[in-house]
Amino acid sequence: MAACGGASHKVTLVMSDYAKPLPSPSPDTQPFWDACKRHELSLPYCRACARFFFYPRRFCPRCFSWDIDWRACSGRGTLYTFAIQYRPQVPGFTPPYVTAIVQLEEGPRLLTNLVGIEPSPETIRCDMPVEVTWEDATDEITLPLFRPAP
Amino acid sequence: MSLKQKVAIVGADETDRIGIIPDATPIMLHAEAARNALRDAGIEKSEVDAVLTCGISGMASTQLCEYLGIIPKYTDSTMTGGSSFEIHVEHAAAAINAGLCSVALITHGETGHSGRMRRGPRGGFFDPTLPAMQFEVPFGVGGAPSAYCMAAMRHMHQYGTTSEQLAEIAVATRKWAQLNPRAMMRDDLTIEDVLSSRWIAYPFHVYDCCLVTDAGGAVVVVGAERARDFKKKPVWVLGSGEASTHQSLLGMDDITTTPARYSGKAAFEMAGVTHDDIDVVEVYDSFTYTALVTLEELGFCAKGEGGPFVSGQRTAPGGDFPMNTNGGGLSYTHPGMYGMFILIEAVRQLRGECGARQVPDARLALVNGTGGTLSATGTLILGAD
Lengths: 150, 385
Description:
The complex is a heterodimer of chains A (150) and B (385). In chain A, a hairpin with a 5-residue loop joins strand 7 (129-136) and strand 8 (142-148). Chain A has one helix at 30-37, and strands at 42-46, 51-52, 68-72, 76-85, 97-104, 109-113, 129-136, 142-148. The two termini of chain A are 21 Å apart. Chain A is built from one helix and eight strands; from the N terminus they run H-E-E-E-E-E-E-E-E. Chain A has one domain (25-148): CATH 2.40.50.840. Chain B has two domains: 7-117 and 214-237, Peroxisomal Thiolase, Chain A, domain 1; 142-211 and 239-384, Thiolase/Chalcone synthase (Peroxisomal Thiolase, Chain A, domain 1, 3-Layer(aba) Sandwich), CATH 3.40.47. Helices cover 33% and strands 18% of the residues of chain B. In chain B, strand 2 (50-53), helix 2 (60-68) and strand 3 form a beta-alpha-beta unit. Chain B is globular, with a radius of gyration of 19 Å. Strand 4 (76-85) of chain A pairs antiparallel with strand 5 of chain B, so a sheet runs across the interface.
């Protein structure tokens, strides 16, 4: 995948070199993106439900408690589902690339890219173990990607 | 209080041309479809006192009312993507039943093909802080195929659904299109053709994906007391339901479901009919998978059994489960929010207007629109006298 660094060759690009859309953090998501920048997967945690949730809000979408804090996650999970994108669905992406929804150990799911594996129906399986890897897209934004876990 | 048989659809039609219409804008197609549907009903524009629409930038119903020259008592710009128009029928029924209006015009118009260069990721919504813009688009998930394929993949993994079973739907729907002279895709298509076609987004082959066309459509809804005053026999709204469970795939607890389980249940309960009573089924087929999972969610088969259910060309002409009889979004037309066209086809089937593709003695039809990323559904059960 162009411009997607797996652990084996992490790339740091200046903003002008990064062709894909970047997230624009909002006040309710900024802690998530700040943690990504430190290569930490930190998710919002509802103290009332004692459960993680995603994507970040100032409140728990389940019980509507606003008693939220942020807790580190392991970065490990399984591949809930995936697809191999053979057409550029978003500007800047070079097909084929793998879109994935990862089921984290802690409960929530993230939509991400699976990297470090041949984008082939023969090699990728739902429920395979995966772990986070980081793509430092710009000085400000680091994206959590996932790769097969040993 | 039930809305059962409180309103009827008395006008339904499409734009003169559907398919590729380079010389039209979306609002022009809304207007042409409105004219044709009102003509179908024999109702003057001046009688319209409610307008329900979406898909026009900004304030959709206000913009359209100005464009058409209508001063409405009631408008509704509910936008749930492809299911909007089924939901508009329910909203029109509620408004008419409440005495807020009496003649409701519901319109659609899109240039999904000719206007595609004007679109961006996520349908042109560019607030960069929206959840999808932060947590999906940066990972290359944008248009519908890039999301629905991941739902299909999980369904295949969880229930053993196969590419062959998805292809059954593409082939059966093409056979209906071959009976419809207005359908865009009418060449022979086999399961082998589908399976050997190029990938759009694995597990979707190109023939698992709907067309991208230009088209418009409209329907006219009136209250029961006026339903028999028009040129054509009324098509009654016997049951309706709407539901939405999420916007993003990430909002789904189980990605193999859709809100049709809720909207369908509501529609069946209101209509007081059973699945076996339904003569013809028109369900949204943005992808083969969309139709398959919708049949499960509506309860036509058990969860996970959609694959076996559609096998053996069961939904094709001559099969025992006639579905998507105009040729569907897969082969007839699909301008983006296809839900208007399943609604129009159900009306035509119940009126007996469908010629070579007519389902004999069709008295009860089920319509299910699906919008967003399997996000929002509207189910209607329609009946002829």
